[in-house]
Amino acid sequence: MKRIVIVGAGASSLALVATLQLEAKTELDIVVLEQNTKVGRKLLATGNGRANLSHRAISLAHYHGGIDQKIENILLNFDAVAFFKRCGLETKYQQDLLYPRSEQATSVVACLSSFLDHVHVYLDTQVLDYTYQNGYYTIKTTLQDFKADWLVLATGSQAGELSGTQNTMYRLLKEKGYTMVPLSTSLVPLETQKTYPQLKGVRIKGTFTLYDGKRTMRQEKGELLFTEYGLSGIAIMQLSRAVSLSPKELAIEIDLFDDFSETELITLLHQRRTLSPDVFFKGLLPMKLAVLFEKQYAHLSNEALAHLLKHWRWSIKGTRSFKQAQVMAGGLSLKEVNADLESIKEKGLYVIGELLDIDGDCGGYNLHFAFACGYHVGKAILQKELL
Ligand SMILES: Cc1cc2nc3c(=O)[nH]c(=O)nc-3n(C[C@H](O)[C@H](O)[C@H](O)COP(=O)(O)OP(=O)(O)OC[C@H]3O[C@@H](n4cnc5c(N)ncnc54)[C@H](O)[C@@H]3O)c2cc1C
Asked: What is the pTM assigned to this prediction?
């Protein structure tokens, strides 16, 4: 019986195992090697423990890196709702975001893990190296050596890892001469030059524009969270990739009144001037923001204040570290793999998930990509097995 060794037991790997088990006509010899002491550790932490599995509108426009036609095919050929139904997991859309019906990531891991029953899973086992000789792979680990006909690398990235950098596979592939696009944080909070620790915990809705000097780089509408070191929240995280990759100092303008034109806001402020200074701000803004604005900007004219409320400019110092990032941009260049995500240089070696040079926006796009890769490669390997 031919053996498939999969390195990593995260989102892409678990989807691959489920696909192999669901679609195979005969028994397969599958080995999963995972450095952690449990499977799906990162998956459990996704979506604040709720796992935002996918998005209703999957399109290439929400992905970055070496995107190409094969990636579009992989993304669009994967039906997350149907796949999870087959895995025994009921799902639901909240607006356009797909979640497990239970709203618990543990349900996702439980359903996917059920396919590991007839798989040899080695936990606490880190893969250190692999070699290819006489038609099969030898995989060197901290436990023992394993042999495989097919080797799948599904080791993700170090984003969000609190236990330290674990991008061993990225380094290994680089040593083996693969083109690796440099890693940088994405979907990560931002540190600002000036901070307002007193605003920590305040959430606002608005429109946020990232500027390189006067040039608009990207604009996001949504939620922002003030922190002691700067800015966070989904809308800010969406802007963070561009900050990570830019060598220049960038700035973000916060529009606190995106439902008002500047002229309409001037009129509103003018009407409110009959109120006491205290009520003027506290009836207009969330409390901690009102206190700050009253202290610092009470002297401004209606015109100047309206401009500030619509163009509150923050100079960006940089991003937080990979520990606070949701994904890493960069990874194995897509030029190194064929349409089945099989290495062009090494036959029978597949690379899936975040280890590839693809990262998505917030909103379920990253998990969708990881699951779609696992599904796609599972089908590709089975097709070859039948030949
Ligand atoms: C806090 C947080 C929240 C997130 N929330 C969402 C969300 O709601 N929706 C969304 O779409 N995306 C989310 N993401 C991103 C998403 O989790 C990842 O993009 C996705 O898990 C990548 O899947 P993967 O299979 O490539 O890697 P992973 O899921 O990271 O799995 C890789 C596995 O490989 C193991 N491994 C690594 N190296 C080795 C080695 N040398 N030997 C053996 N094992 C190894 C790792 O321990 C790990 O278990 C979130 C990320 C974080 C950090």
From this structure: 0.95
Q: Which is it for the CA torsion 114, 120, 124, 130, positive or negative?
A: negative
Residues 10, 150 within the same domain: yes
Atom of ligand 1 nearest to the CA of 354: 26
pLDDT, tens digit (0-9, with 9 covering 90-100), for 16-75: 999 999 999 888 899 999 999 999 999 999 999 999 999 999 999 999 998 889 999 999
CB distance 179 to 33 below 8 Å: no
Assigned token pair, 174: 């680089």
Q: Could you list the residue range(s) of the whole structural domain that residue 103 is in?
A: 3-185+325-386
Calculate how far, in angstroms, residue 356's C-alpha sits from the geometric centre of ligand 1. 12
Q: Which atom of ligand 1 is nearest to the CA of 11?
A: 25
Residues 9 and 135 grouped into a single domain: yes
Residues 307 and 235 in one domain: yes
Same domain, 74 and 176: yes
CA 14 / ligand 1 centre spacing (Å): 11
20 and 162 belong to one structural domain: yes
Please answer whether residues 187 and 237 qualify as being in contact, where contact means their C-beta atoms are separated by less than 8 angstroms.
yes
